[in-house]
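Notes from the 1:1 (GR / supervisor)

We went over the backlog. Supervisor wanted to see one worked example end to end before approving the batch request, so GR pasted a single chain during the call. The sequence is below; no edits were made to it. Supervisor asked that the structure be written out right there so they could see what the output format looks like.
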Amino acid sequence: MVLQRDVKTPVWGWADPGEKVIVEIDGQIKTTVADSLGKWRVEIPPQSAGGPFEMTIHAANTIKFTNVYYGEVWICSGQSNMSFALKRSKNGKSSAESATYPQLRFITIPTLSVEEPQSDFTAKWECCTPKIAPEVSAIAFFFGQYLHEKLQVAVGVVIAAWSGSTGEAWVERNELAKFPELSPLVEQSRLDKASPSQKAGCLFNGMIAPICPYPVKGIVWYQGESNANRAWQYRTLFPILIANWREKWGRGDMPFLYVQLPNYMESRDVPSSSAWAELREAQHKALAVRNVSEVVAIDVGEAKDLHPKDKQTVALRLANVALAKHYDKDVPWTGPEFKSMKISDNKAILSFTHVYDGLVISENSRCDGSTLKGFAIAGPDRKFHWAEAIITGPDQIVVSAPNVPHPVAVRYAWADNPICNLSNSVGLPASPFRTDDWAGVTVDAR
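Structure output shown during the call:
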């Protein structure tokens, strides 16, 4: 296994009531007695990265764990794009064939949806080898591999994902019930109106509750597809999920990295409303929460496949966010971020942050890199029209359209599958955005 370095490590279990338990690892010895229910727990003081060590638990029976390392531990959770296996991904086969990393380990939590919180599960840590790698989550593999190579310490990844799962399935029911707009989700679950993977609280109970005490560096989250039709509601749900998990781990600022939904479905000829765009916006709003970070994937999706094959690009972006923000490494980690808009005559002037050496028109399979694509502009009638967008400075874009003489709002990449190509000088794409706050198509969905 891998234990998180530089923090206290809880070790817990069950024995006969009153039974003495001794836990020993790397010269650290902790003793306790099981309580009246047979539960026991000790805490090992913080340890530096290293290993291998043996952990021995002495009681009526003796249990010995070998090949234990202290290093970095992350949880990778979400729905199908997180559980998507390495063998199915772009570059997955070749990556698996060379995947001999003794100090990169994975443990996959069995899928379980239950009404009550569980205290344990059956699974085991596995060292990364060409034999086990093909079945591992592609995001988890590439993310863990990259961190391991850059940090030169053992890395452990806990994978807890279920295809088709909703966000509410991963949140404790009592937390959802505190909010009027979310409490109906709890009632629907009680009435069995949701499926094995979408009932409020049930995946938290079966797959997160058992691992909550296990110390980790942070969370990597890839989910939202199953909530897209209720995107407005996700504005409330997503921050609650983050807060709920942080509270269960006892760390109010635990790093939380998430993947914004990629482009998907058919592109449209005219600017239009989009539930997927609204879900991306709901995700983006979570950046207001401390130590929450976003990876934009608007350039790596596939029109006809909910599960884009390029998981490597997404995972490397996630790893760079972790390295930059949580390991003090000097690596680029985010694309341009919309900052402000001002109107001058018939033009909208947009300013951006995180441009590095400047804004750039990127090339991709649908854009030749000659002109900016993906911008739309609207006047007081709130009707959007495709716009001309020109980079006029390192951090500035001017947007206009001849049939919008009095612009009031601009949107960028606001579609299920937008044709868009704004990035910064290090090649990271801009997040979709809008300057208006008009009600969307999912505002009344529950």
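Supervisor's comment: The chain has three domains: 2-69, 75-326, 337-433.
Batch request approved.
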